[in-house]
Amino acid sequence: MGIDYRLFALNPDVIASNNPGFSVGDYVNGPFGWQSHAISDGTMVRKLDPALAPISTAVGILGMPGITAYVGLNTHGKPKSGETLVVSAATGAVGSLVGQLGKAQGLRVVGVAGGEEKCRYAVEELGFDACLDHHAAADAGALRKQLAAACPDGVDIYYESVGGKTLEAVVPLMNVFGRIPVCGMISWYSATQADGPDMLPMVWRSILVNRLSIRGFIITDHYDQFPAFVKEVSGLIKTDKVSYRETISEGLASAPEAFINLLKGGNFGKQLVSISPDPTRK
Ligand SMILES: NC(=O)c1ccc[n+]([C@@H]2O[C@H](COP(=O)([O-])OP(=O)(O)OC[C@H]3O[C@@H](n4cnc5c(N)ncnc54)[C@H](OP(=O)(O)O)[C@@H]3O)[C@@H](O)[C@H]2O)c1
User: What is the average per-residue pLDDT within 153-170?
Assistant: First the structure.
């Protein structure tokens, strides 16, 4: 069960194996596509330990989105206790873990999310210091004003997943030697033509004047960190130091709708498509 929206992962159990690394009944995660059955030579297939957490987490908090949060924040964000972190798509699969890892490291964490309910969840359940609703802000200027009030010492790290209005609001608030791990730009994924203002001069100026480090990354370059990440974050889940949410659509036929829903912000936490009951879920 469980397909992530980049058509990248499915968690079935093994029903036949000629590969000594895998036995019948093992739960595995790999790039099998959106289908009910798959044949694999074992390349990029990961055996899962259901004792750590329900196997759906292998495409969420303990999988690709989770390690994206972990690497983006730690390797590229270079957090230091006492700094201020702004997280976009704050309640999503990646953002919710970024913020919780930031809190665990002593940062002030301010989220930006779509809607009051998501913002309440970020503060009350994920432990963010504040969260701002980007739908409620009329424009980037209005959002920036609210962010400035929520970040009285400026912004040291902006975990960037969305582009658009949020990026435009945050960049002028960046502190000298600030860092921006560029994880995604979801507000522009479906754009067919330029929309919004030309931000390039404003962004370029801030990079120069504030000596910012902007670092794009693709998580598959960092899969050597998987064992350390799973060890650390599964420990945090077990001890209730981090929590996560999933939005589960039922049946393979619901996958296209689930995908479109995610691009509109309709998901709450990791968007999954379940194609069979999950025996590891209590
Ligand atoms: N670099 C990498 O290797 C890598 C790996 C994994 C994921 N990513 C990127 O990380 C980001 C988050 O991925 P995820 O899987 O955790 O997704 P997610 O946050 O669970 O879901 C996407 C969220 O993006 C927000 N969003 C959608 N349209 C938006 C818009 N126009 N403006 C502002 N926010 C918008 C919505 O949240 P709100 O309702 O709160 O606005 C939506 O729930 C994506 O950009 C993804 O491409 C990158």
Answer: 97
Specify the residue with its C-alpha closest to ligand 1, atom 43.
265
Residue with CA closest to ligand 1 atom 45:
184
Cβ(187) – ligand 1 distance below 6 Å? yes
- 199 vs 1 pLDDT, higher one: 199
State the DSSP string of the chain: ----TTT--B--B-S----TT--TT-BEEB---SSS-----STT-EE--TTTS-GGGGGTTTSHHHHHHHHIIIIII---TT-EEEEESTTSHHHHHHHHHHHHTT-EEEEEESSHHHHHHHHHTT--SEEEETTTSSSHHHHHHHHHHH-TT-EEEEEBS--HHHHHHHGGGEEEEEEEEE---GGGTT-SS--S---HHHHHHHHHHTT-EEEE--GGGGGGGHHHHHHHHHHHHHTTSS---EEEEESGGGHHHHHHHHHTT--SSEEEEESS--TT--
Cα-to-centroid distance, 94 and ligand 1 (Å): 8
> Domains in the chain: how many in total?
2
- pTM listed for this prediction: 0.91
Q: Which domain holds residue 43?
A: 1-56+244-282
